[in-house]
Design goal:
The complex is a heterodimer of chains A (472) and B (373). Chain A is an all-alpha fold. Chain A has three domains: 22-241, no CATH class; 248-319; 331-468, no CATH class. Helix content of chain A is 70%, strand content 0%. Chain A has 18 helices and no strands. Chain A has helices at residues 3-18, 25-40, 49-68, 76-98, 112-130, 136-155, 157-171, 188-203, 212-220, 233-241, 248-275, 288-319, 337-343, 346-365, 373-392, 396-419, 428-454, 458-468. The longest helix of chain A has 32 residues, at 288-319. Chain A is globular, with a radius of gyration of 24 Å. Chain B is an alpha/beta fold and 373 residues long. Chain B has a six-stranded mixed sheet, sandwiched between helices. In chain B, helix 12 (310-327) links the parallel strand 5 (285-289) and strand 6 (330-333). Classes of the chains: A mainly alpha (472), B alpha/beta (373). The A-B interface holds A 248, 251-252, 255, 271, 274-275, 280-281, 284-287, 290-291, 293-294, 297 and B 6-9, 12, 57-59, 61, 220-221, 224-225, 227-228, 230-234.
């Protein structure tokens, strides 16, 4: 996101916040969020894809609601206005082409008829889904599988290139020019996590009843669209129904987080980005000392970039009376890897713990032949961390990055088990020394892990590692 | 909360805006003194071996800026007082001296340093102060600024394309240093109009912090790229492939709008060249007409290369040689030292690394013969 787009979003959020609890507020918030989905979508070389992907975001949201909404929430009277807002945004953007309007920051829409047909198709499918009876469980499972397949298609470069080639062929464009970068679907990762959360909670009966407007605003809430955090729907909707007032305290809180976020992102992260380790400079570095400087710069750039966006999202949310969850809590100052992951991208780790680690370890514990605790923990950590790695992209490096952290977490878990009874009588100075040592060790373990994250393949990561330890 | 200690966001906002406006106006009214530049180069980072220039900073870890102080402060030459054993030679010129497509050690300065020469009983150290734009006035600007580093000798390489009056002020470095040029115009009576629209004269708005944000950011970025320069030794993007210097030429006889016979000596900026010699003071200057590609391809009977029709270049050489002789300049005309296209990269004046070595060897006798102070 550019500084200009963030300033526009701040203005919009402040206006929405000033509406207080007006009955129009929810629908306006929905309309702004839906428009932001289009406005923030980067331009793409595949013709009209930068219109169809945001449209697909809205369609998935509506279908997600139709799959998860309990019968008492499916009334037209309750949800009709939200449906009209979403359809209206899509159709109005489609009409801009008819009237020859070129809206800034919004991709040129295709002809109107395909848009009309798409909106109609989504409406028909939604109508059918809300009338599902017993088949709902099956459709929920299919929905989960569908999202995971979509995830795989978007996160695996060879598959993404194939999809791009197919889309290019459909459009009459050269398939030979297809590239994985052709399909950059803004906010899909976070949307998928939110939808999967609602699907799983619906399956387990924990999902609260929410209207289409509430569900859609939760899924595409514009402050959290591009970089999270991943809120839980019940908490989010509670704030949506009872927003905190935008009084002087609200302005101050929002202003502080926004200023902090802008500073972290546009001053610290962007400055560090100039010198951070990258695939381009990784093999040009000629000394271990400078290689460490570049790696440290990357480590802090990543943190300030991500934490800066989170601060801005929280500040924007606060302007509208919604308290988004924290995502970072000084992670580089934590004395061990477990605490690091409890304080780094917290909402993702909480999500993964809730929907991967806990169910998996529970299943392993209750298996016919019980496994040793250490094995269960190792299996849970490996699967969770590798999945977190693959969420960033289906590559060997991301898988190895996940394994690196799983290994670290496992070792820390075993060390804690061993050390806890033995270190209780340690004197305060020793405890402080251990704490400081732990912070340093954890930071460097995480930072070395970024070698796998930032570089494109294991061979390059290995070569840079050898430079870091003084090799050629 | 005590109502007295309660923070009022609107009050904070308007006070902040007021303070910001005030600081901006103060900066615009009393611009910070130029002439000093805080730099991490030569302290935390290695000094650069050539002046900062780069159009693709993300690849070259280098950028173009117009702040001469910051540019010089990042250069190796600003690393500290001249060592007693050093015989300091500065090289002034265009992109061929700066070294487009060449690594620092492959440039003319790099090649001369590799020869480990001893001049006047001291170890010769050659400093690359070339800059990639063609204008004698830009050369004069850099030469004038470089004199504070106490050079023992100056080698000024040039070519006809730097001479036309119309290109003198269009070099971005000149255009954005109008106040420095004013001083040079006053000192050397240069034939330029201070109100020339090519010169960038900042308005009040452009002198505020907001108006100067680009320049401030550039200075910061120059410092930041010092990390990658020190870490990699890269200060230029090196494409694997590039269009070679043209040898098939158009049948065009004009030179900057002049037809054969129209170009006069007064159309070229010889006064600027003379001002350079005056600016050098007692420091000996060796003027070199730099080598260029001499095409044998299509229309080579009309033109030597992409830049020059034969008639214009021949006139220029004659005028330059006559003036050098008349004014007693040390002058070397090396225009046809390396005529073959194989010696050039992407332009008729950009030499290959091997050709730079040949040029360096050729310059040695002339450099050695110059008088010692």
């Amino acid at each position: 996101m550019t500084l200009t787009s963030i300033l526009i979003l701040i203005g919009l959020a402040a206006c929405l916040g000033l509406l207080g609890r007006s009955r129009w507020r929810l629908l306006l918030l929905l309309a702004v969020s839906a428009l932001a989905v289009y406005a923030l979508q980067p331009a793409l070389p595949v013709r009209f894809l930068d219109f169809w992907l945001p449209t697909a975001t809205l369609a998935l949201t509506v279908l997600g609601w139709a799959l998860t909404a309990p019968p008492e929430q499916r009334l037209w009277r309750t949800n009709g206005p939200a449906a009209a807002v979403l359809a209206g945004v899509v159709l109005l953007l489609g009409l801009t082409r008819l009237f020859g309007l070129d809206l800034p920051a919004v991709g040129r829409p295709p002809r109107f008829l395909p848009i009309l047909l798409a909106v109609t198709a989504v409406a028909v499918v939604t109508f059918l889904l809300v009338r599902l009876g017993r088949a709902r469980r099956l459709w929920l499972a299919l929905g989960i599988v569908f999202l995971l397949v979509l995830f795989l298609l978007l996160k695996s470069s060879p598959l993404t290139a194939l999809v791009s080639a197919w889309l290019r062929t459909l459009n009459g464009q050269s398939a030979g020019l297809a590239s994985p970068l052709d399909i950059r679907w803004l906010g899909f990762s976070y949307l998928a996590f939110r939808l999967l959360h609602t699907f799983r909670d619906r399956q387990s009966g924990r999902l609260p009843p929410v209207s289409l407007a509430e569900y859609a605003v939760y899924a595409i809430f514009f402050p959290a669209l591009t970089a999270g955090p991943i809120d839980r729907i019940e908490r989010f909707v509670a704030d949506l129904r009872h927003p905190r007032p935008l009084d002087s305290q609200g302005w101050l809180e929002a202003g502080r987080r926004l200023t902090l976020g802008l500073f972290k992102k546009f001053v610290l992260a962007d400055a560090l980005g100039l010198i951070a380790l990258s695939p381009a400079n990784a093999l040009q570095v000629h000394s271990a000392g400078w290689a460490w400087v570049l790696l440290y710069a990357y480590s802090f750039q990543l943190y300030f970039d991500f934490a800066g966006y989170t601060d801005m999202a929280i500040g924007l949310g606060r302007l509208m009376g919604i308290q988004l969850p924290e995502n970072f809590n000084a992670p580089y100052l934590k004395p061990n890897l477990t605490q690091f992951w409890n304080n780094w991208h917290m909402t993702l780790t909480q999500w993964m713990r809730a929907y991967v680690f806990n169910p998996l370890t529970r299943a392993l514990r209750s298996a016919g032949r019980p496994l040793p605790t250490a094995v269960i923990i190792l299996a849970g950590q490996v699967s969770t961390m590798v999945l977190i790695g693959l969420w960033h992209g289906v590559t060997w490096n991301f898988a190895f990055w996940g394994l690196w952290h799983a290994f670290g977490l496992f070792v820390h878990n075993r060390w804690s088990e061993w050390a806890r009874p033995r270190l209780t009588a340690v004197s305060v100075p020793w405890r402080m020394a251990l704490q400081a040592g732990g912070v340093l060790l954890t930071f460097h373990y995480v930072t070395l892990g970024w070698l796998l994250f930032v570089l494109p393949d294991p061979a390059t990561s290995w070569r840079v590692l050898s430079i870091l330890i003084g090799g050629a | 909360m005590d109502s007295r200690s309660e923070v009022r966001p609107l009050a904070v906002l308007w006070k902040g805006v007021l303070l910001f406006l005030l600081v901006n106006l103060l900066v615009a009214a009393f611009p910070p003194e130029s002439g000093t530049s805080v730099s991490l180069y030569n302290r935390l980072f290695a000094g650069r071996e050539r002046l900062p220039f780069g159009e693709t900073p993300a690849q070259s870890y280098n950028l173009s800026l117009f702040d001469l102080e910051a540019m010089f402060a990042s250069h190796l030459i600003a690393g500290g007082p001249k060592p007693a054993q050093e015989y300091r030679v500065i090289l002034i010129g265009d992109s061929s001296v700066w070294g487009t497509l060449l690594r620092p050690e492959e440039t003319l300065a790099g090649r001369l340093n590799a020869l480990n020469l001893t001049l006047c009983g001291r170890e010769a150290r050659f400093y690359n102060l070339g800059y990639p734009s063609l204008s004698l006035t830009k050369d004069l600007l850099l030469l004038d600024a470089a004199m504070r580093y106490d050079p023992d000798r100056i080698i000024w390489l040039t070519t006809l394309e730097s001479f036309p009056l119309e290109v003198q002020l269009t070099s971005p470095l000149v255009a954005h240093n109008a106040s420095r040029l004013d001083a040079l115009m006053a000192r050397y009576d240069l034939p330029f109009d201070p109100a020339d629209p090519a010169l960038e004269r900042p308005s009040l708005w452009e002198r505020t912090l907001i108006g100067r944000r680009r320049a401030i950011a550039d200075r910061f970025r120059l410092q930041a790229y010092g990390v990658l320069w020190s870490a990699t030794g890269v200060d230029q993007a090196y494409p694997l492939d590039y269009p070679r210097a043209q040898t098939e030429l158009e049948a065009d006889l004009s030179f900057h709008g002049f037809r054969p016979g129209e170009l006069q000596e007064a159309d070229l900026a010889f006064e600027v060249l003379e001002a350079g010699f005056v600016a050098a003071g007692d420091t000996p200057v060796l003027l070199v007409n730099e080598p260029m590609l001499i095409s044998r391809g299509e229309n080579s009977d009309l033109r030597y290369n992409f830049f020059y029709p034969r008639w214009a270049y021949d006139d220029y050489r004659q005028w330059l040689a006559q003036r050098a002789e008349r004014l007693g300049w040390d002058y070397l005309d090396l225009w046809d030292l390396l005529p073959d296209p194989v010696h050039y990269t992407n332009s008729a004046i950009h030499l290959t690394p091997q050709a730079e070595a040949v040029l360096a060897e050729t310059l040695v006798p002339a450099i050695s013969q110059m008088p010692c102070p």
